[in-house]
Protein backbone atom coordinates (compact mmCIF):
# COMPACT_ATOMS: atom_id res chain seq x y z
CA UNK A 1 0.00 0.00 0.00
CA UNK A 2 1.39 3.46 -0.86
CA UNK A 3 1.96 5.89 1.94
CA UNK A 4 -0.36 8.93 2.11
CA UNK A 5 1.25 12.14 0.78
CA UNK A 6 0.70 13.71 4.21
CA UNK A 7 1.12 11.31 7.10
CA UNK A 8 1.04 12.65 10.67
CA UNK A 9 1.32 10.66 13.91
CA UNK A 10 1.59 12.02 17.45
CA UNK A 11 2.64 15.49 16.34
CA UNK A 12 3.26 18.19 18.96
CA UNK A 13 4.18 21.77 18.24
CA UNK A 14 4.98 24.26 21.00
CA UNK A 15 5.00 27.97 20.24
CA UNK A 16 7.95 29.65 21.82
CA UNK A 17 5.79 32.08 23.80
CA UNK A 18 4.68 32.92 27.33
CA UNK A 19 1.24 31.38 26.89
CA UNK A 20 2.84 27.95 26.36
CA UNK A 21 0.51 27.22 23.45
CA UNK A 22 0.79 23.70 22.07
CA UNK A 23 -0.90 22.13 19.06
CA UNK A 24 -1.24 18.34 19.19
CA UNK A 25 -2.32 16.35 16.14
CA UNK A 26 -2.59 12.64 16.99
CA UNK A 27 -3.28 11.43 13.45
CA UNK A 28 -3.94 12.93 10.06
CA UNK A 29 -3.40 11.86 6.48
CA UNK A 30 -3.99 13.05 2.93
CA UNK A 31 -3.89 10.44 0.17
CA UNK A 32 -2.30 11.03 -3.21
CA UNK A 33 -4.48 13.24 -5.45
CA UNK A 34 -7.06 13.60 -2.66
CA UNK A 35 -8.77 16.95 -2.12
CA UNK A 36 -9.33 17.82 1.54
CA UNK A 37 -11.32 20.70 2.98
CA UNK A 38 -10.14 21.66 6.47
CA UNK A 39 -12.44 23.70 8.64
CA UNK A 40 -12.17 24.97 12.20
CA UNK A 41 -13.00 27.82 14.56
CA UNK A 42 -10.86 30.92 14.53
CA UNK A 43 -7.74 30.25 16.60
CA UNK A 44 -8.16 26.45 16.47
CA UNK A 45 -4.75 25.99 14.80
CA UNK A 46 -5.51 25.60 11.08
CA UNK A 47 -2.77 27.95 9.88
CA UNK A 48 -0.33 26.50 12.40
CA UNK A 49 -1.00 23.02 11.07
CA UNK A 50 -0.51 24.17 7.46
CA UNK A 51 2.73 25.95 8.41
CA UNK A 52 3.96 22.64 9.86
CA UNK A 53 2.92 20.60 6.82
CA UNK A 54 4.66 23.12 4.52
CA UNK A 55 7.78 22.93 6.66
CA UNK A 56 7.72 26.63 7.50
CA UNK A 57 7.65 25.59 11.16
CA UNK A 58 9.00 22.41 12.73
CA UNK A 59 7.21 20.29 15.31
CA UNK A 60 9.20 19.25 18.38
CA UNK A 61 7.61 15.80 18.77
CA UNK A 62 6.03 13.11 16.63
CA UNK A 63 6.21 12.34 12.96
CA UNK A 64 5.16 14.47 9.98
CA UNK A 65 5.92 12.81 6.66
CA UNK A 66 5.17 14.58 3.38
CA UNK A 67 5.65 12.59 0.17
CA UNK A 68 7.57 10.00 2.17
CA UNK A 69 10.01 12.51 3.70
CA UNK A 70 10.19 13.15 7.45
CA UNK A 71 10.01 16.92 7.95
CA UNK A 72 10.65 16.95 11.71
CA UNK A 73 14.28 15.93 11.29
CA UNK A 74 15.11 18.32 8.43
CA UNK A 75 16.92 21.63 8.95
CA UNK A 76 15.19 24.90 8.04
CA UNK A 77 17.00 25.19 4.71
CA UNK A 78 16.26 21.53 3.85
CA UNK A 79 12.58 22.16 4.55
CA UNK A 80 12.64 25.37 2.44
CA UNK A 81 14.08 23.47 -0.52
CA UNK A 82 11.70 20.55 0.01
CA UNK A 83 8.73 22.94 0.02
CA UNK A 84 9.94 24.80 -3.07
CA UNK A 85 10.37 21.52 -4.98
CA UNK A 86 7.34 19.57 -3.79
CA UNK A 87 4.53 21.70 -2.38
CA UNK A 88 2.50 24.40 -4.06
CA UNK A 89 1.62 26.97 -1.43
CA UNK A 90 -1.15 29.54 -1.83
CA UNK A 91 -1.73 31.71 1.18
CA UNK A 92 -4.18 34.57 1.69
CA UNK A 93 -1.26 36.93 1.37
CA UNK A 94 -0.10 36.00 -2.11
CA UNK A 95 3.55 36.92 -1.55
CA UNK A 96 4.14 37.88 -5.18
CA UNK A 97 7.14 40.12 -5.76
CA UNK A 98 5.22 43.29 -6.72
CA UNK A 99 7.76 44.76 -9.16
CA UNK A 100 8.27 41.48 -11.07
CA UNK A 101 6.03 40.31 -13.90
CA UNK A 102 3.92 37.15 -13.81
CA UNK A 103 6.58 35.33 -15.80
CA UNK A 104 9.42 36.59 -13.57
CA UNK A 105 7.56 35.67 -10.37
CA UNK A 106 7.22 32.10 -11.62
CA UNK A 107 10.82 31.94 -12.85
CA UNK A 108 12.01 33.08 -9.43
CA UNK A 109 10.04 30.34 -7.65
CA UNK A 110 11.54 27.75 -10.02
CA UNK A 111 15.06 29.08 -9.46
CA UNK A 112 14.52 28.81 -5.74
CA UNK A 113 13.45 25.18 -6.24
CA UNK A 114 16.56 24.60 -8.38
CA UNK A 115 14.31 23.59 -11.26
CA UNK A 116 14.13 25.04 -14.71
CA UNK A 117 11.04 25.95 -16.68
CA UNK A 118 10.91 27.42 -20.17
CA UNK A 119 9.18 30.73 -20.85
CA UNK A 120 6.86 28.96 -23.27
CA UNK A 121 5.79 26.50 -20.53
CA UNK A 122 5.11 29.46 -18.22
CA UNK A 123 3.02 31.09 -20.96
CA UNK A 124 1.06 27.86 -21.45
CA UNK A 125 0.39 27.61 -17.72
CA UNK A 126 -0.73 31.26 -17.48
CA UNK A 127 -2.99 30.82 -20.51
CA UNK A 128 -4.52 27.72 -18.97
CA UNK A 129 -5.37 29.95 -16.02
CA UNK A 130 -7.01 32.50 -18.34
CA UNK A 131 -4.50 35.25 -17.73
CA UNK A 132 -4.53 37.46 -20.85
CA UNK A 133 -1.24 37.47 -22.79
CA UNK A 134 -1.33 41.29 -22.77
CA UNK A 135 -0.53 41.35 -19.03
CA UNK A 136 2.22 38.70 -18.94
CA UNK A 137 5.00 41.31 -18.84
CA UNK A 138 3.32 43.81 -16.50
CA UNK A 139 4.51 43.97 -12.90
CA UNK A 140 2.33 42.11 -10.43
CA UNK A 141 1.30 45.36 -8.72
CA UNK A 142 -0.23 46.58 -12.00
CA UNK A 143 -2.66 43.67 -12.08
CA UNK A 144 -6.08 43.11 -10.52
CA UNK A 145 -6.41 40.93 -7.44
CA UNK A 146 -8.07 38.18 -9.48
CA UNK A 147 -5.15 38.27 -11.97
CA UNK A 148 -2.65 38.14 -9.10
CA UNK A 149 -4.51 35.12 -7.69
CA UNK A 150 -4.08 33.38 -11.05
CA UNK A 151 -0.35 34.06 -10.97
CA UNK A 152 -0.20 32.65 -7.43
CA UNK A 153 -1.90 29.44 -8.63
CA UNK A 154 0.41 29.25 -11.65
CA UNK A 155 3.43 29.71 -9.38
CA UNK A 156 2.12 27.01 -7.03
CA UNK A 157 1.70 24.60 -9.97
CA UNK A 158 4.86 25.47 -11.92
CA UNK A 159 7.02 22.81 -10.28
CA UNK A 160 4.30 20.17 -10.78
CA UNK A 161 3.82 19.58 -7.04
CA UNK A 162 1.98 16.52 -5.79
CA UNK A 163 0.40 18.63 -3.03
CA UNK A 164 -1.13 22.11 -2.94
CA UNK A 165 -1.68 23.80 0.39
CA UNK A 166 -4.11 26.70 0.33
CA UNK A 167 -4.80 28.77 3.44
CA UNK A 168 -7.92 30.91 3.02
CA UNK A 169 -6.84 31.86 -0.50
CA UNK A 170 -10.22 33.34 -1.39
CA UNK A 171 -10.79 35.58 1.61
CA UNK A 172 -9.83 38.75 -0.28
CA UNK A 173 -11.99 37.93 -3.32
CA UNK A 174 -15.61 38.70 -4.08
CA UNK A 175 -17.94 35.72 -4.49
CA UNK A 176 -17.67 35.46 -8.29
CA UNK A 177 -13.88 35.65 -8.25
CA UNK A 178 -13.71 33.20 -5.36
CA UNK A 179 -15.91 30.71 -7.25
CA UNK A 180 -13.72 31.11 -10.35
CA UNK A 181 -10.62 30.58 -8.23
CA UNK A 182 -11.91 27.28 -6.82
CA UNK A 183 -12.94 26.07 -10.25
CA UNK A 184 -9.51 26.88 -11.69
CA UNK A 185 -7.73 25.24 -8.79
CA UNK A 186 -9.75 22.04 -9.20
CA UNK A 187 -9.44 22.01 -13.00
CA UNK A 188 -5.68 22.37 -12.97
CA UNK A 189 -5.07 20.11 -9.96
CA UNK A 190 -7.37 17.46 -11.49
CA UNK A 191 -5.38 17.46 -14.73
CA UNK A 192 -2.11 16.94 -12.84
CA UNK A 193 -3.36 14.54 -10.11
CA UNK A 194 -2.36 17.00 -7.45
CA UNK A 195 -3.66 16.63 -3.88
CA UNK A 196 -5.19 19.72 -2.27
CA UNK A 197 -5.36 20.65 1.40
CA UNK A 198 -7.61 23.68 1.55
CA UNK A 199 -8.50 25.77 4.59
CA UNK A 200 -11.45 28.10 4.54
CA UNK A 201 -14.15 29.50 6.81
CA UNK A 202 -16.45 29.48 3.82
CA UNK A 203 -18.01 26.03 3.70
CA UNK A 204 -19.87 26.57 0.40
CA UNK A 205 -17.28 24.54 -1.46
CA UNK A 206 -16.77 21.78 1.09
CA UNK A 207 -19.01 19.33 -0.80
CA UNK A 208 -16.72 19.49 -3.86
CA UNK A 209 -13.81 18.03 -1.89
CA UNK A 210 -13.16 14.32 -1.42
CA UNK A 211 -12.89 14.73 2.33
CA UNK A 212 -14.05 17.28 4.89
CA UNK A 213 -12.02 17.48 8.12
CA UNK A 214 -12.74 19.56 11.20
CA UNK A 215 -10.03 20.78 13.56
CA UNK A 216 -12.05 19.76 16.63
CA UNK A 217 -11.82 16.11 15.52
CA UNK A 218 -8.24 16.38 14.35
CA UNK A 219 -6.25 18.40 16.85
CA UNK A 220 -6.08 19.76 20.36
CA UNK A 221 -4.83 23.25 21.10
CA UNK A 222 -3.58 23.57 24.69
CA UNK A 223 -2.70 26.79 26.41
CA UNK A 224 -1.23 27.13 29.91
CA UNK A 225 -1.13 30.81 30.80
CA UNK A 226 1.94 31.79 32.81
CA UNK A 227 1.13 33.30 36.25
N1 LIG B 1 3.43 33.19 16.48
C1 LIG B 1 2.64 32.78 17.46
N2 LIG B 1 3.06 32.73 18.73
C2 LIG B 1 2.26 32.27 19.73
N3 LIG B 1 1.01 31.82 19.53
C3 LIG B 1 0.53 31.87 18.29
C4 LIG B 1 1.30 32.33 17.16
N4 LIG B 1 0.55 32.22 16.04
C5 LIG B 1 -0.63 31.71 16.44
N5 LIG B 1 -0.65 31.50 17.77
C6 LIG B 1 -1.75 30.94 18.54
O1 LIG B 1 -2.01 29.64 18.06
C7 LIG B 1 -3.42 29.44 17.99
C8 LIG B 1 -3.78 28.94 16.60
O2 LIG B 1 -3.55 29.99 15.67
P1 LIG B 1 -3.81 29.77 14.12
O3 LIG B 1 -3.43 31.02 13.42
O4 LIG B 1 -3.16 28.51 13.71
O5 LIG B 1 -5.39 29.57 14.11
P2 LIG B 1 -6.40 29.50 12.90
O6 LIG B 1 -7.31 28.35 13.14
O7 LIG B 1 -5.68 29.52 11.61
O8 LIG B 1 -7.19 30.87 13.11
P3 LIG B 1 -7.94 31.82 12.05
O9 LIG B 1 -9.05 31.02 11.44
O10 LIG B 1 -8.45 32.93 12.93
O11 LIG B 1 -6.93 32.30 11.05
C9 LIG B 1 -4.09 30.75 18.34
O12 LIG B 1 -4.64 30.60 19.62
C10 LIG B 1 -3.00 31.76 18.33
O13 LIG B 1 -3.16 32.68 19.38
From TrEMBL:
The keyword Transport applies. SMART domains: AAA. Transmembrane segments: none annotated. Keywords: ATP-binding, Nucleotide-binding, Transport. Pfam families: ABC_tran. GO terms for molecular function: ATP binding. The keyword ATP-binding applies. Gene3D superfamilies: P-loop containing nucleotide triphosphate hydrolases. It comes from the Bacteria. Residues 6-225 form the ABC transporter domain. Belongs to the ABC transporter superfamily. This is ABC transporter ATP-binding protein.
